[in-house]
Amino acid sequence: MATIGRSPGEEAIAGLSSEALESLEAGFHGELLFPQDEGYEEARAVWNGMIDRHPAIVARCSGVADVVEAVGFGREHGLPVAVRGGGHNVAGTAVADGGIVVDLSAMTGVRVDPEARTVRAEGGATLGDVDRETQLFGLATALGAVSQTGIAGLTLNGGYGHLSRQYGLALDNLRSVDVVTADGTVRTASEAENADLFWAVRGGGGNFGVVTSFEYALHEVGPEVYALFVWFHADDSREAMDRYREWTATAPREAGVLAFAAHVPDLEEFPEEHWGEPTVAMLGSYRGDLDDAGAVFGPLVEGLTPLVDFSGSMAYTELQSMLDEDYPDGLRYYWKSVYLTAITDEVVDLLLRYNGSAPSPLSTVDLWHLDGAVSEIPRDATAFWHRDKPYMITFEANWEDPADDDANVDWARDGIAETQDLSVASGRYGNFPGMNEDPARALFGDNYERLAEIKSRYDPENLFRSNANVAPRPSA
Predict the structure, then answer these.
(1) CA 212 to chain centre
(2) DSSP state letters, 42-94
(3) pLDDT for res 474
(4) DSSP β-bridge partners for residue 9
(5) What are the mean pLDDT values of the chain's consecutive 10-residue runs (476 residues total)?
(6) 171 within 8 A of 200, measured Cβ to Cβ
(7) SS3 label, residue 66
(8) CB distance 160 to 390 below 8 Å
(9) What phi-psi label fits residue 434: left (phi over 0), alpha (psi between -120 and 50 degrees) or beta?
(10) How far apart are alpha carbons 428 and 157 in whole angstroms?
(11) Is residue 433 reached through a cis peptide bond, with omega within 30 degrees of 0 on the bond before it?
(12) Nearest C-alpha neighbor of 201 from the set 219, 217, 215, 183
């Protein structure tokens, strides 16, 4: 029991000797923040405003040696270890009460090798950091769809984005990683070196160590692409979704579209008389010959009169940052997802109905079109299991007032529960996990047992458990 008036972080610090803290400070070259320090409150805050946790130490690492020092300190003193990358971790696992936060946010270096068509990025980098450097050479790797997202969590749990159907998940584009494991060893993992660890981190999340750098394959993308961004009239919502179902059946790999049910924003770019109306929108891109984009996306919009249409040719970096303003720091977020084998009438009914009943106009119900390159890799080739599902539905509860927490969380959970009862629903996605309340087996499927074996080798004491945790097998 914590002493009255003390936070979990203060309580944990009180249990550490001055000699231990002095030793940490002597060996650490970055910035260490403790509960009494100026800047601690800012350092413990994360993107999701719902998260209010008090770590004992925030260790802002300047390099890999600092990561080793922080991991070792947490292990030796029995502190929970949390890892903070570039940002946008919905479940808030980047910070733990009474623990040590291994903060990589200052480690954002990106180096492109245009001849080898690879890029290596440090664990605190964001999508925007990577895209900015790779686009200098007309190259990109398959990452997400919001530039402020950290590459680390996105990649370790999968990584869907605009390029997924053409080039696979973010983790499918990995060529190697550098990992600090629980024993403080720095290991390089690839198909040729520590192959079991490389298999596990590609889909196993943060269960196996702190990934300090990622090497990705690059592809010719941009600098100009065609972006589809259309908002439909409310009366056309069902027709638009029917068009989407038909379009996904034959869509070329060079194109991808996310359909989402939302409320018309109170912004001057939208007709004021329609503000607040529940409707459907589509965001996508085409990376082929830009002159062909009209023919590719025509079946989605022909015969319908969009409420607004922001579509057109634009820089790839602009496409990647189009949604940034919709996900500001400090907003409250609760996201959950379910994979689908088909978009049925029941799915469309549910999507439209829950959008209409959302407690917050900032929330959305998203329908992702997957398949393509993602589905062609065997499900046991990496730890990522749910490759065979062509669609995913996500309930994004986004709101401002803490007083509305219960209503918004219940809305998302109810929507997921109702979706899960449909015959076409199966499995969960690690990057939209709610608060990690679902069992890890729902994410990892038949790959779970192999993950548990590898966990037992690299983290037998379960030091890295602030995640969708895979428990190590008990010692014989």
Answers:
(1) 17
(2) HHH--SSTT-----SEEEE-SSHHHHHHHHHHHHHHT--EEEE-SS--TT-TT
(3) 78
(4) none
(5) 76 94 96 96 96 98 98 97 94 96 98 98 98 98 96 96 96 98 98 98 96 98 95 96 95 96 96 96 95 95 93 96 94 97 97 98 97 95 96 98 98 97 94 88 93 97 93 79
(6) no
(7) helix
(8) no
(9) left
(10) 11
(11) no
(12) 215
Structure-block tokens of residue 282:
């589509």
Give yes or no for a contact between 422 and 346, defined as CB atoms under 8 angstroms apart: yes
Tokens of 433: 């996990």
Q: Which two tokens stand for residue 463?
A: 């030091």
Residue indicated by tokens 């570039």: 86
Contact 379, 426 (CB under 8 A): no
Q: How many CA atoms lie within 13 A of 285 on its CB side?
A: 24
CB atoms within 10 A of CB 18: 7
Pairing of strands 57-60, 100-103: parallel
Provide the phi-psi class of 146: left if phi over 0, else alpha when psi is between -120 and 50, else beta.
beta
Structure tokens at 443: 């994410």
Tell me, what's the pLDDT at 476? 54
Here the tokens at position 284 are 């996508």
End-to-end Cα spacing for the chain: 33
User: Which residue from 148, 106, 116, 153 is spatially nearest to 131, judged by alpha carbons?
Assistant: 148
CB of 310 closer than 8 Å to CB of 229: yes
Q: Is 403 helix (H, G, I), strand (E, B) or coil?
A: helix
Question: Do 147 and 128 meet the contact criterion of CB atoms below 8 Å apart?
Answer: yes
Q: Which two tokens stand for residue 371?
A: 């398949």
8-state DSSP, 446: G
Where do we find the tokens 């990992």?
Answer: 179
Tell me the C-alpha to C-alpha distance, in Å, between residue 350 and each of 166, 347, 442: 29, 5, 22
CB 435: neighbour CB atoms within 10 A?
16
**Which residues lie below 8 Å from residue 190, measured CB to CB, with a gap of 6+?**
175, 176, 177, 198
- Residue 460, preceding peptide bond in cis (omega within 30° of 0): no
Nearest CA among 353, 63, 68 for reference residue 213:
63
Torsions phi, psi for 36 (to 5 deg): -85, -5
pLDDT of amino acid 4 = 63
Q: Which residue has the tokens 């203060």?
A: 10
Tell the residue number behind the tokens 């990892």, with chain if given.
Answer: 444
Length of the chain: 476
Q: Count the neighbouring beta carbons within 10 Å of the beta carbon of residue 269.
A: 8
**Given the structure tokens 């062609």, which residue do they identify?**
376
Tokens of 402: 């803490």
